[in-house]
From TrEMBL:
<dbReference type="InterPro" id="IPR013249">
    <property type="entry name" value="RNA_pol_sigma70_r4_t2"/>
</dbReference>
<dbReference type="GO" id="GO:0016987">
    <property type="term" value="F:sigma factor activity"/>
</dbReference>
<dbReference type="InterPro" id="IPR014327">
    <property type="entry name" value="RNA_pol_sigma70_bacteroid"/>
</dbReference>
<feature type="domain" description="RNA polymerase sigma factor 70 region 4 type 2">
    <location>
        <begin position="120"/>
        <end position="171"/>
    </location>
</feature>
<keyword id="KW-0805">Transcription regulation</keyword>
<dbReference type="Pfam" id="PF04542">
    <property type="entry name" value="Sigma70_r2"/>
</dbReference>
<comment type="similarity">
    <text>Belongs to the sigma-70 factor family. ECF subfamily.</text>
</comment>
<dbReference type="InterPro" id="IPR036388">
    <property type="entry name" value="WH-like_DNA-bd_sf"/>
</dbReference>
<protein>
    <recommendedName>
        <fullName>RNA polymerase, sigma-24 subunit, ECF subfamily</fullName>
    </recommendedName>
</protein>
<feature type="domain" description="RNA polymerase sigma-70 region 2">
    <location>
        <begin position="22"/>
        <end position="85"/>
    </location>
</feature>
<dbReference type="InterPro" id="IPR007627">
    <property type="entry name" value="RNA_pol_sigma70_r2"/>
</dbReference>
<dbReference type="Pfam" id="PF08281">
    <property type="entry name" value="Sigma70_r4_2"/>
</dbReference>
<keyword id="KW-0804">Transcription</keyword>
<dbReference type="InterPro" id="IPR013325">
    <property type="entry name" value="RNA_pol_sigma_r2"/>
</dbReference>
<dbReference type="GO" id="GO:0006352">
    <property type="term" value="P:DNA-templated transcription initiation"/>
</dbReference>
<dbReference type="InterPro" id="IPR013324">
    <property type="entry name" value="RNA_pol_sigma_r3/r4-like"/>
</dbReference>
<dbReference type="GO" id="GO:0003677">
    <property type="term" value="F:DNA binding"/>
</dbReference>
């Protein structure tokens, strides 16, 4: 589907195809950008700039082999450039995290325990080395494949696998600790 849209945009300058592609990838790119930049409006701007540049590529767009990886890599590079220019780093906002479960079905005590548990998980994720943290988020939160992550981050799939193993080992410490209680 994405390849078809890519060719429609590149060779036919089809605005409808561009709109379809934008709708298809926008939310994923925005969430990805928010990993780097904890500012939704700025992340929106970065994603929009990347998409505008995609449109401006015209026929060169047809030369891109994996458009999805290209878009994620472009957003990553723009975000890093922004951070480099202003030396601003992101932080997780734990207070704004909502539970996946419906609040109506659980007691206040259970919800409180789950939020504390979630805070522990987020702290473990934050404590991971930056590259390891990013690999974990791209695979587990955004559902990207090892190959896509390796292309976006310009590392080998084996390195992606190793980063994910490290992340899972660190997170398993929480589960082991919880079982001992």
């Amino acid at each position: 589907m994405i390849d078809h849209l890519k060719y429609e945009i590149a060779f036919n300058r089809n605005e409808n195809a561009f709109h379809q592609l934008f709708v298809k990838v926008h939310s994923s790119l925005l969430k990805f950008c928010l990993i780097y930049i904890n500012d939704k409006s700025l992340s929106e701007e970065i994603v929009s700039d990347v998409m505008l540049n995609l449109w401006l590529m015209e026929e060169r767009l047809g030369e891109i082999e994996n458009l999805k990886s290209y878009l994620f890599r472009s957003v990553k590079n723009r975000a890093i450039n922004y951070l480099t220019n202003i030396r601003k780093f992101t932080e997780w906002d734990i207070d704004n995290i909502s539970l996946v479960h419906s609040i109506d079905n659980y007691s206040p005590e259970f919800i409180s325990i789950e939020k504390e548990y979630l805070k522990e998980v987020l702290k473990k994720i934050e404590a991971l080395p930056p590259q390891c943290q990013l690999v974990f988020k791209l695979i587990r939160e955004y559902g990207l494949s090892y190959k896509q992550v390796s292309e976006i981050l310009d590392i080998s799939p084996k390195t992606v696998d190793r980063h994910l193993q490290i992340a899972m080992q660190k997170l398993s410490e929480i589960f082991q600790h919880k079982r001992k209680k």
